[in-house]
Amino acid sequence: MGRNSSVLGHAARNVYLCPLKNFSEVKFNKYHGAAISAFVIWGFIPFPLKALTAFPSSQILYFRILVSVVTLLLISGTTRREKWRQTIQLFKEHGPIEKRRFILYTLLGGALLTINWLAFIYVVNHVDIQTGSFSYLLCPILTAALGFLILHEHLRLNQWLSVGLSLMSCLLVGTDSIYNLLFSLLIAASYAFYLITQRLLKEYDKIVLLTLQLLLAFTFIGPSYPWFVGEAAQPITGHFIGQIVLLSWLFTVIPLFLNLFALKELKSATVGVLMYLNPIINFTMAFLYFGEVASEQKILAYFVIFASVVLYNLPIGKKKEATASA
Q: Out of 152, 216, 222, 315, which could bridge 19 as a Cys pair, Cβ 3.0 to 4.6 Å?
């Protein structure tokens, strides 16, 4: 999600796709409050983005990465020195193959995150909020399918049916607007592949990884501001700086730390259910506040993708699976 990259400390598939019964069995505490706060904050991310509609998406992305990485470096230098020391030590202990894998997936993660953020910013400001929200409902199912293909993770029958329903929702959106579908798939696929790369680096601290990824991303785009932003670049104003700081701090760094705090105590299943607050709030704002409209075909597609999410999360075959593994 251009906006929810912090929930990577656990296995990507388990964080996103989890039995709904786990959610009903928990008692709320400060960790639930932290997770809910993070997803509610991300749910309102269209506000700072819409406030910057006059600026090209590449210019917004450029300064969002800059402010975010500077903020994370300051935090790393003051409160997370030990995590950096541990990460460096872990890297040194690995062999040449593992070191190359770390470098490759860190670079790839930075590139995928940059693509995801840029596409999401463009979609919210120049297509519609619905398309961005649909992407993050589609993303969990796509992540599960990639987990099966790349990581050889097991999928139960109801989960395969859920994948089929997701494909049906894509067809419905595609026949209504192939343009919107392609953007939805770009956002969903870039973040799904990003989650897979983070799964392969799960032993490393996620804040350290994110800092490195954004630092590497800015290393590439930083020196080429005129080329990256292009002739559409607008003069930097106080309004622009204020919205960028808001976007980088309130909608990136703060929810990032709230999520990591929540994941210290909460099961990934619980966080996975709470995560759906994000696109639900997006959809609500799109229709009720920003006055977006949707065709009957799109509305049907949204219902189908919601149904696929519910179907995937049903604990069908879970007991048999647990018994077999025991």
A: 315
User: What single string gives the DSSP state of each residue in 253-290?
Assistant: IHHHHHHHHHHTTS-HHHHHHHTTHHHHHHHHHHHHTS
pLDDT one-digit tens code per residue, 224-271: 888 888 888 899 999 999 999 999 999 999 988 887 788 677 765 566
Residue 213: give the domain boundaries. Answer: 12-325
Contact 281, 290 (CB under 8 A): no
Is residue 237, in this structure, part of any structural domain at all? yes
**Angstrom distance (rounded) from CA 222 to CA 34:** 33
Whether the full predicted model's pTM is greater than 0.85, yes or no, is no
Does 155 map to a domain?
A: yes
pLDDT digits (tens, 9 = 90+) for 143-190: 778 878 887 778 788 878 888 888 888 888 887 788 888 999 999 999
